[in-house]
Amino acid sequence: MNQQNGQKRRFTEEGIRQEIQQQPHLFAKLAENALTVAESLRNNYFKNTAQFVKALRLAIHQFEAGERTDPILKIEAVKDISWSDVKDEVVTFIDGGVGQVQISSQIPILLRVGSYSVKTGERQLAKREEFGYYPIILGDLEGGSKDRKDFTDIVRITAELLGGLSALERTPDLKLLMFHGPLVYTVWHYMGHTPFTEKDIDLFLNQYAENPQLAQQLKEDFLEEAKIDIYPKMAPDRSDEWIRQRVFEPLAWMSFLLRELIKRAKIRSPSPMIVGVVERSTIFREFSETILLERVFQGLRRKNKEDYFNRIYGWSDLSSPRALLEKLGYTDTLLLAMLLQPGQFSESWVINKYGGFSRSEISLPGESFFSVANWNCLRPDNTMGFPRVRGLYVHVSDTTDPLRVEVFDELATDQHIQDITQRVYLYARLLPGYGFPVGLDIVDKYAHVPNWMTDAYSKIIKYQLSSSLQRGEINDAEMRQILIQAIYMTKRDWLFRPQY
Fold first, then answer.
1. Which range marks the domain in which residue 12 is found?
2. d(Cα 196, Cα 434) in Å, to the nearest integer?
């Protein structure tokens, strides 16, 4: 009886307001929104939000009960599995960390992509867990536009993708490959970077595989694709020169690595699951705008109630999903936290990752002039373009926001999505107050370059520079050795913490 009453209260404004007040992270976010929205929207902000959520919940319930044919939001329950169901599965988690040393300014000097592999149910620690590093010293790279703030991003993303490919190569029985963050970033932001040189790619591939021939083959496969299809379309006036110099345009290289992940997953039986899990998606609104509210507004237009939201909120310009979200501060995680219950996940949708591709200027390493390149050939509808990515939200607990989960659209069968949501939910429940897969939390700490390390090496670097200047010489080899010592610490960092 109490359970029935509780379910009924989910569809009342009073019950929803009480739910919000009992969930501090939701209450704090709505309180913040109430202070930042226009003054005319602040009155009854909580009440109006509860009224809106009530209408959404009722519409979802009516669709599930067969009382309406047009869905507002399709919700599924994560099928329950136990640890015995995933016994002996091999899972690898991937994350990258960037360390910065302050000399005269913040200069990024090292990057560590960490992998944490675990065999579930294995009792012997030596066989159960394995840690790995994929270290890169950014100062060694010739390509990439180091003057841009996103230089470290393209290096980190590239290194993480190679870390994932390496995990597939080294682990024949890999069941699940999970990345900390999106599977694909909004990559058009990174247009125009100077291409990487072959020497740069060799540095990236230094830790890729035990057999150097595999790394060489990966390079040659990309260059063959670039020669035939990518560079002639991207830079027709310079493609011959790019091919002759064997350069690797960063976005084309990322696209190739992502397609390699899919290709290698598909040729295995059973195919390993590949997923990206986004920890904090506090400003993301695409699902709410293009799926959830778009359906709401379509229904209101059919019923001639286009002023519905204006009447609720006392406003005159809430005439589109985007206007509603922007003016009221609603986001995907905020709305879905009030619509999904723990153990549920939303329907999936194809995320718009590639809307900003266009023409932009680019220069080769060592060049002082720029030429125009066209990145439209990397759109998903081209054979050599980026893969489409499908997203969905999984709600783990009442104390946390829903997680955004990303999978490759090419692999996203219903069973594939169900298997992934089961494992994301299972691993995340081990951290109920955090609501994030425990393996990603571990590898995040493992890949992180701690402040004590960069602070210590900052002091050493300054001392070496000072001494070298006083002697009238600067020994680059000595400086390089210091950086190598920092990046190649392969044990857990706390074992190397200062003793005093």
1. 2-72+285-330
2. 38
Q: From start to end of 32-105, where are the E strands?
A: 75-77, 90-102
Q: How far apart are CA 293 and CA 424, in angstroms?
A: 26
Cα–Cα separations (whole angstroms), residue 205 to 134, 158, 209, 248: 9, 10, 8, 13
Instruction: Give me the amino acid identity at 50.
Output: A
Q: Among 339, 357, 355, 338, which Cα is nearest to 347's?
A: 339
- The 8-class DSSP code of residue 258 comes to H
Q: Are residues 437 and 472 in the same domain?
A: no
Closest to 444 measured CA to CA, from 37, 69, 45, 94: 94
Nearest to 251 by CA among 177, 174, 194: 194
pTM: 0.86
Query: Which pLDDT score, from 0 to 100, does residue 460 have?
Result: 56
Determine the distance from the C-alpha atom of residue 499 to the mean position of all C-alpha atoms in its chain, rounded to a whole number. 36
Query: Which are the contacts of 212, defined by CB distance < 8 A and separation ≥ 6?
Result: none
Of 17, 72, 71, 75, nearest to 49 (Cα)?
17
Q: Give yes or no: residues 94 and 176 share one domain.
A: yes
Say if 137 falls within a structural domain. yes
Report whether 321 contacts 300 (CB < 8 A): no
CB 361 within 8 A of CB 372: yes
pLDDT, tens only, 159-201: 999 999 999 988 999 999 999 999 999 888 899 999 999 999 9
**Looking at the 3D structure of the chain, how many domains does it have?**
3
55 secondary structure, DSSP code = H
**Count of Cβ atoms closer than 10 Å to residue 196 Cβ:** 24
Q: Alpha-carbon distance 412 to 89, whole Å?
A: 20
462 and 424 within one domain: no
Closest CA to 274 of 289, 286, 264: 264
Cα–Cα dist 350/408, whole Å: 9
